[in-house]
Amino acid sequence: LVDEIQFIFIDNNCSVFCAAYFSLQVIYARRKYSVSPPSTAGPPEFERIFRAQANCSEYFPIFITMLWTAGLFLSPGESTPAVASSLWLRSTSALRFSGFSSASRLSEFSSRSAEFT
């Protein structure tokens, strides 16, 4: 069993480190733009980074559950499909984080979220 799940375990840890990296980016942005916790409002640059991290971490528990489920039950003995899809999802998440945190679409996002409140 250990041989079957070693790649899933490694991928799980890489995913956790990726989520920790996103959280660290928010901490660095808080220091850079002088936004003290628990406040989430600040300069647009900070709000972009904060929102990007929130977007990436909203579905993280579901992602980890699906990774282990797919790796253990859907492809027993062969964890390659689960790990490959996890790598693809994590790379798109990292690209989305870097794009959203540096994009100038915050005003568009803010105006849309104001419509729902």
TrEMBL record:
Q: Which key words are in the record? A: Membrane, Nucleus, Transmembrane, Transmembrane helix
Q: Please name the Gene3D superfamilies in this protein's record.
A: Membrane associated eicosanoid/glutathione metabolism-like domain (1.20.120.550)
Question: One GO CC annotation, please?
Answer: endoplasmic reticulum
Matching Pfam families, A to Z? MAPEG
Q: Cite the GO molecular-function annotations of the record.
A: glutathione peroxidase activity; glutathione transferase activity; leukotriene-C4 synthase activity
The record's subcellular location field reads: Nucleus membrane
Q: Which family does it belong to?
A: Belongs to the MAPEG family.
* The protein's name in its UniProt record: Leukotriene C4 synthase
Q: Which species is this record about?
A: Amphiprion ocellaris
Taxonomic lineage per UniProt? Eukaryota, Metazoa, Chordata, Craniata, Vertebrata
